[in-house]
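Predict the 3D structure for this chain.
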Amino acid sequence: MLDKKQIANIKAELATEEAAFPLVFQALGDPCRFKVFKVLMQYHDICVTDIANIFGITLSAASQQLRVLERLGLVQKMRMGQMVCYEINVENSIAKQLFKLFKGSNK
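Done. Predicted structure below.
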């Protein structure tokens, strides 16, 4: 049986996840963003121009897609000179779970 401290910890975790997961699934429900996330899982340090070229979209559209993923904490931005590149945010617990889920489905 769980003690009061364990129950409180579980409640806190659920409250955090309940707020975040619907937003994450809504964001990844967009086919382009989902594909961008999948590309970032396979290749590290992808620049906005690379995303634009891969998907045949404008730099502005690529930036917008990446910005949504960044706001949710799924990816993080790095500036390399004048280039802006992104990678999966391995510190984000939801990003970690999604990474495991999607990697497991590619076997």
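The helical segments are 4-28, 31-42, 48-55, 59-71, 93-104.
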